[in-house]
């Protein structure tokens, strides 16, 4: 350990990746100072925040060595090293690898598909269809259609995984479940929900919302 | 450690994510048994391989406990735990977090943009524009255009990073450099190269190709 200390978490409650960190902290039973950066007023794209993170993305974790750390899995993994109790990234190398792999499937197959669907149709993103850049990008309606089709494949794979495993990452709740919930909830913004006939995925999603960490951090729309 | 052993790596030399694992192994000075799965003949989509990995993606690492591990960063992180000498994911929690964050920037801002550009124009992917699924997806030409514009932003940010840091992940060569090279080389498939005026990015890219691990694993086109 280099001995650096956490100053605060820059966040916004409706930002899906910030929610991952809230869920993570809640599951760990820890809390850290926070400062809200309002995405609605584009506070994240103002000079004062861009000096901290030149992408203007949330969440960002500020450390007392002058570092502003971004990317929610990197932030959570750092927090796991500081607070190893109740591990959410696995214990053994093979557990860690399985969780890492499934966490990525949730993000690439699920979250990114849902993001494509949402940002390429939502009116407020018509000229800002690409997340994480200040530059204008026009929405591509065909990409939204592709995103919805990819979500069908994602839901089906998620269900298949949960037929054989209680949680996405294995026998225990993990970071892979957190990113999974974020993906499914992002899809809801495009009115795309887990099909009723996917019983194992439904069983899992219900169990997820029985956790305070998940239900208390959900904001509709 | 649970004591499981590596059986082999399923790979294909032209597959960018498989190349990440080759580079990683080369840098570590280790080798493991390999079996080539030919993407050109769609061997990855045949029943015998889909039983191992239902996405039909490469690389996949087979373990003697029956597990087939996918996702190149998960595979490399697992190998790092087994072979901790010459760490490529950092040593301290904060080093690990910085490398993790930058590795993700290389993939999301760089590799995915390059993949969008390539797969939505290349003739052989006209009906298979989405990686990692067997289903047909038609190419979206506007997405290729978006990918090329996103690459301009990526190159500029990469250069900015390398003005202040010798390597992408900090003072040492790391996994973030490996994914960075993969991203820049994926862009070359769309005839998009690092602009000459980005001196720091050029300095880094030249240094990368002075490494055997990078130069010996490059396949053009």
Tell me what the structure shows:
2 copies of one chain form a homodimer. Chain A is of the alpha+beta class. Chain A has 2 domains: 6-82, Glutaredoxin; 93-215, Glutathione S-transferase Yfyf (Class Pi), Chain A, domain 2 (Up-down Bundle), CATH 1.20.1050. The first copy, chain A, contains 8 helices and 4 strands; from the N terminus they run E-H-E-H-E-E-H-H-H-H-H-H. Chain A has helices spanning 16-28, 47-50, 72-82, 93-119, 141-164, 175-188, 199-209, 212-215, and strands at residues 6-11, 34-36, 60-63, 68-70. Chain A has a 4-stranded mixed sheet with strand order 2-1-3-4. In chain A, helix 5 (141-164) crosses helix 7. The longest helix of chain A has 27 residues, at 93-119. The radius of gyration of chain A is 17 Å and the shape is globular. At the A-B interface, helix 3, helix 4 and helix 5 of A face helix 3, helix 4 and helix 5 of B.
């Amino acid at each position: 350990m280099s001995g650096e200390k956490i100053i605060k978490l820059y966040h916004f409650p409706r930002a899906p990746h910030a929610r991952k960190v809230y869920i993570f902290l809640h599951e760990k039973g820890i809390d850290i100072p926070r400062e809200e950066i309002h995405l609605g007023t584009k506070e994240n794209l103002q000079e004062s925040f861009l000096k901290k993170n030149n992408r203007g993305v949330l969440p960002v974790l500020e450390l007392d060595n002058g570092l502003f750390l971004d990317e929610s899995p990197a932030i959570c993994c750092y927090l796991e090293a500081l607070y190893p109790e109740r591990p959410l990234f696995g214990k053994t190398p093979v557990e860690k690898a399985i969780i890492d792999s499934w966490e990525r499937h949730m993000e690439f197959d699920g979250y990114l598909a849902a993001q494509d669907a949402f940002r390429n149709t939502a009116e407020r993103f018509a000229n800002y269809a690409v997340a994480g850049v200040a530059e204008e990008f026009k929405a591509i309606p065909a990409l939204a259609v592709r995103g919805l089709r990819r979500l069908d494949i994602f839901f089906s794979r998620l269900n298949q995984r949960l037929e054989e495993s209680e949680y996405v990452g294995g026998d225990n709740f993990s970071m892979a479940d957190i990113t999974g919930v974020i993906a499914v909830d992002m899809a809801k913004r495009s009115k795309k929900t887990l099909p009723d006939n996917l019983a194992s995925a439904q069983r899992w999603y219900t169990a997820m919302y029985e956790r305070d960490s998940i239900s208390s951090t959900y904001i509709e729309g």
